[in-house]
User: What shape does this take?
Amino acid sequence: MAPSNKKKGAAAQIKIAADNRKARHAYEIGDTLETGIELKGTEVKALREGRANIGESYASIENGELYLINSYIPVYEAANRFNHAPRRPRKLLVHARELAKLHAAIQRDGMTLVPLKIYFNDRGRAKLELAVARGRKAHDKRHEQKKRDWQRDKARLMRERG
Assistant: This one.
């Protein structure tokens, strides 16, 4: 058996293809879940270029399956006529038990499924980090911003005083 080129204990190489930075500001994040995405070949190539956008997308359960709605993966220019639709619904791959948990979670008042990021794991597979979240009101967003600013100022003061 040939020696493996993989290092044991090395950190996993994760390449982020799309990030939903507004989600942590606009939503109170609860549980997170790693899901697979059913993609076409041109979608994978476009994701590797890193031009995707999931800022306004969400996940929905339709006909007993989980879908990512309104995500934008641009067309891959080299594929010409074999390209994909940029905003098509994409099936998310989860186990039946996880789907039942997600369905129960979004039945609660004000909860929704928000994608946080699309990335490639160490095996080169496209994954989506999905969160069960509750929308924040404007005053909650201001309160969180004040709290973050105070934490930053407090850390700066502690550094200066030693």
